[in-house]
Batch of 3 targets.
Target 1
Amino acid sequence: MASSISAQNSLKRARILYDVNPEAAFIPRTDQTILQASIARRKRGARPQQQRDQAASSSALALVTDNTNTMRPITPSVKSTDGTSNALVRTDTRNIPDETKNASSGILVNSTKAKNKLKIPTPTWHAPWKLSTVLSSHLGWVRSIGIDPTNDMFATGSADRTIKLWDLAKASVGASDALKLTLTGHISPVRGLAFSPRHPYLFSAGEDKMVKCWDLETNQVIRHYHGHLSGVFCLALHPTLDILVTGGRDAVARVWDMRTKTQIHVLSGHEHTVASLLTKSTDPQIITGSHDTTVKLWDLAAGKCMTTLTHHQKSIRALAQPSFENTFVSGAADCLKYWQGKDGRFLKSYTGHKAVVNAMAVNDDGVLVSGGDDGSMHFWDYKTGYNFQSSASIVQPGSLDAENAIFAAEFDGTGTRLITAEADKSVKIWKQDDEASEVTHPIDMVGWRKKCIKESKQRY
């Protein structure tokens, strides 16, 4: 109250002085705003230092300087409640009328630009997976898996040079008669398998440089595709065209006409083994991952590379894409990376699987699984990258502890069964735990939030 009376008296004396001789006045008449600003300054000077610091952080006083050197205060900024910034910025006066410019130039106003706050996505809850069945029939490492589009059976290829066909329903319950057929013809490990969705054909690729087409009605080889100069490590069928794509140790991906056995394109550009392949019905229709640490997106019509992705630092041995969105994931020993499918734009890194990732698969529920060379299995929420389960495969009796690698992984047509091919010569079938719930296996939001904050400071 004393400071208010003192300010009023001071202003009153000044007004009387300059009213006597208006010609000598060098300050204009003030208004009620000057009085309130003077009172506010005196009050702030009388408060303790701590209170003044708090007031300074929550409000700021801006002064306007016009052409007559008049100082007028603007209403102090108030702390925003809608997430906008309270920073004082200078407004652009180029489009302001001249009379407005003369009255107030260089105005300081509140910025309404929203702060770039980190948004932490909420993961979707998924039930944990557990081992259901172990199939032991192969005599060597099981290197590849193919799922029949009808979901009646699946095939496995092994280092024992054989291809075995299994009844999926019987194999899921561990029936003794689950094995339907054994195909022989390769003279080296079978590294790639794929069923045709439109024909009764099974395609296989091996380290013997051979790509074979099997007729499942006669169980015989009806076509050979010759051209690879070294072992063939991966194989994929185009979803809509009668086209076969293979990649191998000769550092190229070859595109074949399924019927005429003609080599349509040789997709060259990689400097090392092409270890993984994806095919899509939309551009880019072919995606390749290589041991030269790059991912390439190809134009199928022109047979040329559209984009090269160089974010990985280790060999890329696995690629996976979902059916519900146009994205894909690449897996290497450094991490898993999540990409936009159309242009290859980098979206996110999935970190935590510290192993050489040999296999990946994703189902329609958004569960991504990655299998490592040390037998480790990580289950991820596909859209957010949340690792909701980490487990390890169990070596079968009679095998070495080192034979704990996972070489291939595929979900069946329903997405409720996961089939893995492993180094202990076994094929394992996994299923979700029906007794699990969000209460028994909750999402670790605290750890997930810390991980998101840590990764937000990294570029890739």
Target 2
Amino acid sequence: MFVRLSLQHQALTRCFCSVAQKPRITSLNIVRSRSNNPLLNLAYEETMLHKFDTNSRTLLLWQNEPTIVLGRNQNVWKEVNLPQARESGVHIIRRESGGGCVYHDAGNVNFTFFTPTHQPFDNLHIIQRALKSIGVEVETSKRHELLLNDKKISGSAFRLLGQYKQCYHHCTLLINSDLSFLDSVLLSATEKAISSKATNSVRSVVTNINETHPFVGKEDIFSALSTHFVLTYQDGEDVKFSYSEVTEEDLQQNEEVQEVVSKFDSWEWTYGQSPKFTTTISNNFSWGEMTIAIHCTKGIVTLCEVSTSHQDESLEQSVAQIFEGKKYSKSSILEIREHAPVHISDKQWTEIWDWLLGYV
């Protein structure tokens, strides 16, 4: 069967033909991860994309331990309440797809659709029909969200390879997530004075499905989604179907997964991938006021501009000099303090250390 390509599609694919053959779907695959380890799940998702057969359609079902997941082009210092996140022990991971910051926990489930073309609303409509089949009526938004009573229960992000020949679309779905904790660890775009071209998250009013449908559980949703995924693509054709599960042990022993894990687990990826930025912080101390403008590239302090109401100009120079060239991180500040010269270890500096450690 032939379909006429739109001019927009021709421009995107640089195709000079006016028609293209609809690819035949030969297999449908549903994979469920039994691991709740976010590093393993996100790494597995990435390896699946690179091995995806474009004649198939694949759905990955997964769930994570408490995790903050950043979009590829976001600034971790602007998006995350880092002191709160460290205190709670929540994971912080940067994914490969764009978009905003999301929170995963045991009350949230995740779906990833692997397709050869970018088709977000097709995928959302599958979820929409699945939820309707278990009594949950939701609407889609222009931002590729799912809304329950005008409140967000699902967000989306995408990754595309090979001129749109390999795509994934992953979605969250809030069933009974800890929304108060979500609010405490995710920052709004205006909470920190950070200047950057990084992608800012768009905060929305969210809700859980269980607020209005208390008896709907994750197994109900996984089952309904699996059914409607197959119904959507089977369409009377002779299509092979497979269902499989992967365990944490499977993923730990998978060399390709472990290679991606090593990247996702690195400081250079999670923090250093943040686009170039400048953050300005100020504080009033017992001896006066201090303002620091910290310029960072790849998470490294490239310039530190300090001004104080203190009469001793050497204090400004000392602060600037000890931070330049260092990682903008709590561990870096602790290391600097440990090896600081004796003359900057007095009460004045103790106040500065405590302030910086409570901020980064």
Target 3
Amino acid sequence: AEYMGTNDRVSAFDFVLPNLIPFKGQVLNIISDWSMRQTSDIVPNALAFDKQPDPNVVVQKKMKNLSVECVVRGYLWGSMAAAYEKGDRDFCGLKIPEGLLRYQKLAEPIFTPTTKAHVGHDENITLDDMKKQFGEELALKLKETSLALFARGQEVMRKVGLILLDTKYEFGVDENGKLHVIDEVNTPDSSRMVDIEEYESKYPQIAKAFEDAAKAGQPFANVSKLLDKHPSLKIKEFSKQYVRDALISMGFDGKGPLQLSNEVVIECSYRYVAVCERLTGLPFPFPQDSDGADSLILRQRLVSNLQRTGLLSPAGGVALIFAGSDSDAPHINKLVEQLAAFKIPSVVRICSAHKQPAKLEETLNYYNRSAQACVIVACAGGTDALSGTASFHSLHPVVSCPPDGLDNRTCLTNPPGSSNAFIARPDNLARFVAQTFSSRSLFLQKFILTNAKEKVEKLVKADAKFQSGK
């Protein structure tokens, strides 16, 4: 199985915004988990547990991702509406009729797949393209399954007063080639939703205003132009579109993300929580923490739950081995081996303090956000600037264990603000890291005490042996 942690970051126009949207990650997990269980009769899903280990974690069975976005649209909305208003009528090999308006319901839901781009924008593809990539049988099954999931989503949402406008699904296959839905299903991040009352109130007004303007000889080129003049008619969605619209109103120029106002953040969070409660019929489980410690308590809870389910090491933390060069590989391997004896996982990063100072600082800042406890092990021979730089920028303790051992004491003369420790032997280093993590790991507490007891007993036996003369 593999697990995915969700967070409260939000992206728009290919930028990750500096703001966090409170509870967004938890909302997406709750809705996706709930939706997958509502559709398991249509297609198997990748959920690995009946109950997820933590509100911010989804554990799914490992699948081969087919790397295609299976988009289903029931209304002329979003990017499709924008392209339609510019004159496009061919979408993913489908001919869309003339005379439609933005927000108008399509005669029937349509399947408009795209590539899944890891960099840049997704690109529209046709069903024929999918047949060439996956074969006709699997391509048709992907289309059929996507439409069935969308129909179920529309059915479920209509019961709670919502319209599912469009959405995207991702699929994978297991080791036997069996199709599964993966990632998220019918969430506000992967879908557009609207309140039925909102739609049925505003769309007829939009259609009438558009028609009346044409009859009066002052036609609007499209609905977007009409909305420029009558912004109150814009239909409010439960989706990330609210964030996009807010950025545009703030003057977003496509060159970089903007800081959202507190009002926008609060409204966005409210929309996520509101749609979660409406869909599931359950009150949202807000954290009961206080004293401004919510973030820290959440991180501790997250790590504890992942340890409890065996998804994280029982050691309670991870050792980050920073080396200045891959020429130190033999020493790095000794460190990894000694840490593994205490069941402490390690991550090795090669980053020179002399040649890559900017990258080193960026990498240290990345690990400063870790929910897990960390100890940084600086492994640099010669003139050791690594330990000093790391201990200045890192939130985590730094221990220097250079490949040239006691012959290298440059880390002991680091300037003020550098707070690294020094341990020459890899085995002693591993024990020190274990002791550092032991306050949050019952496993390590027992391991360290048992190990010490065994060594003492061995000494007692050796002493007794010599005393007896045997």
